[in-house]
Amino acid sequence: MAALPNIRLLVAAGLVGLFAVSLSIGVDDLPVDSVFTDAGALQLLLVSRLPRTVAVVLTGAGLAIAGLVLQILVRNRFVEPITTGTGQSAALGVLAVTLLFPTASIAMKTLGASVTALAGTSIFLGIAHRLPPTQPFLIPLFGLVYGGVIGAAVTFIAWQTDLLQYVDVWTNGEFSGVLRGRYELLWITAAMVALAWWVADRLTIAAMGREVSLGLGLNYQRIVQLGLVMVAVISSLAVVVVGMIPFVGLVVPNLVSRLMGDNLKSALPWVAVTGATLLLACDVVSRVIRYPYEIPVGTVLGVVGSGLFLWILFGRAQRA
Amino acid sequence: MIEIKNVSLRLGDTQILEDVSLTMPKGGVTALVGPNGAGKSSLLSLIARLQPLQSGSISVDGLPVDTTPSRQLARTLAILRQDPAVASRLKVRELVGFGRFPHQRGRIDANDMKLIEAALQQFGLMDLADRFLDNLSGGQRQRAMVAMAFCQGTDYMLLDEPLNNLDMLFARQLMRDLRAAADNDKRTVIVVLHDINHAAVYADRIVAMKSGCVVADGSPAEVLQPDMLARVFGYGMDVIDVGGAPLVLHHR
């Protein structure tokens, strides 16, 4: 446990360092001193580099928190919003809004996505609670099938209506399209993270189950509803603004739990910080690995995330 | 005082409780005994409002459990369910601290800290206080859960088979701790027990249940009679007297 402050320091320093690196890399050179002398350089920083970096940080923190909250609601550590139908339901919502109101703003699309994501996640939760608790791996498996079915419906409708290209944008997350004026809604994610921290004690108790919660006088139903809203809103914002991003919501809560435990009053901020750091690191890699071109950040996360996930799985087995 | 009036419970086609009426006075240790499926756990969870009442009424210190705000009840009674399967990686001290939640909503002050330390001390958890729950044995985890219920500081403590997973030493220790909670802290302890001899020694009162009904209610000496035990458990067993307390030879 003596190593813990060092890990926290490392993660925090990593986030600050990566933030600076993220601002400095791109197709155009952007020397630090030029920002103060060159109007074009300042413009580049404020219109493209800074919005992109902020968007990555907000999305990473948000997805990690959404994964954490979903894992608490489902009482299973092997789920995240895009493996349980939340992301796919959100895509269905954006698709519906796009079809019905072709001129809808990003805010309208997010609202539509949030409504369907809330419905889709509530149905998943209702069914997950009915699965036998003696078979913990049924829940993630059911989630994959459930998400697959909704995803197939999205693809079918999009194919029928010639919108497949849009669906591609929503389902493959990447940040190259983020510019000033097109990402600001993501700040709602920050509000959701703050809200989760505000109710951290309640979430910790809810994670101990319905009966312990009731015994301590916690309104379990209400915290579940609040959690569902947080998961749906964060996931929908990610889908609409940057597209689906895998693994952050799955591995980060597990990593932080391993290192710091589940007392969320102290651990929850680190879930957010670690999520932001992980996603920012992967975004930087996706930008430099075949510079000046980019690969989707989801691809990088697929490799990094599955590696981390295997480590968590085998680490568990060793401990038990 | 806990007043149970005409409580029945049906789950699907199964009658779990049938017209149970029972009064448990404040103070002391009451043991609920009976064979598996007698309805002991269901009765306990109805008192603790973990399940909705279907018929009849239950009140604790005059508070009807179905209409009193949950948080207010959480300051009157604490419940520990059987095998609570808490999978959270919490430290023992953190877990016990959550017992203060109904009073503080998360803001732990100096007084709470004292109560938490006292609960850790009382249940012999000082050495384990900074260990994570998932690194403990089943018995240690069980003691931590009981300490959390104790730390809730309620007049009533309801415990469903708390001796599960405990070896003889810790089972005896826990029963002594519950006895001390009743004697020194004036708590009312209601505990579901399978080991009838623990009930014989540590309980002031034994309530025996069978098939959803209360069949006996009295002091250990009154309830632990061979004919009564045969009626409740379905087979005859001898009862001998050891130092003034009945000892049931149920294993022979």
UniProtKB/TrEMBL annotation, chain A:
It comes from Aminobacter ciceronei. The chain crosses the membrane at residues 50-74, 86-104, 110-128, 137-159, 185-205, 226-247, 267-286, 293-314. Pfam families: FecCD (PF01032). This is Iron complex transport system permease protein. Keywords: Cell membrane, Membrane, Transmembrane, Transmembrane helix, Transport. The keyword Cell membrane applies. It is a multi-pass membrane protein. The keyword Plastid does not apply. Belongs to the binding-protein-dependent transport system permease family. FecCD subfamily. Gene3D superfamilies: ABC transporter involved in vitamin B12 uptake, BtuC (1.10.3470.10). Its main location: membrane. It is found in: Cell membrane.
UniProtKB/TrEMBL annotation, chain B:
Pfam families: ABC_tran. It is a peripheral membrane protein. Transmembrane segments: none annotated. Residues 2-236 form the ABC transporter domain. Keywords: ATP-binding, Cell membrane, Ion transport, Iron, Iron transport, Membrane, Nucleotide-binding, Transport. Coiled coil: none annotated. The keyword Repeat does not apply. GO terms for molecular function: ATP binding. InterPro entries: AAA+_ATPase, ABC_transporter-like_ATP-bd, ABC_transporter-like_CS, P-loop_NTPase, Siderophore_ABC-ATPase. Its main location: membrane. It is found in: Cell membrane. Belongs to the ABC transporter superfamily. This is Iron complex transport system ATP-binding protein.
